[in-house]
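> call design_seq(struct)
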């Protein structure tokens, strides 16, 4: 009987670890999705000026560092 209880304890520990891992993965995906949606809203409200080249701006910033 003690062996059965001991095995059950091991299974419950594994179940808890798996649930923590799955929950963490789901939370991370939710946070990423929320961040993407927020960035999209910001882009909609603030369009880039005409003639602005992001590649050139990034290159210029990198060269000045």
């Amino acid at each position: 009987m003690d062996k059965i209880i001991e095995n059950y304890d091991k299974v419950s520990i594994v179940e808890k670890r798996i649930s923590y891992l799955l929950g963490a993965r789901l939370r991370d995906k939710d946070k990423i999705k929320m961040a993407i949606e927020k960035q999209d809203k910001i882009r909609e409200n603030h369009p880039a000026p005409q003639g602005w080249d992001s590649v050139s701006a990034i290159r210029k910033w990198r060269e000045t560092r």
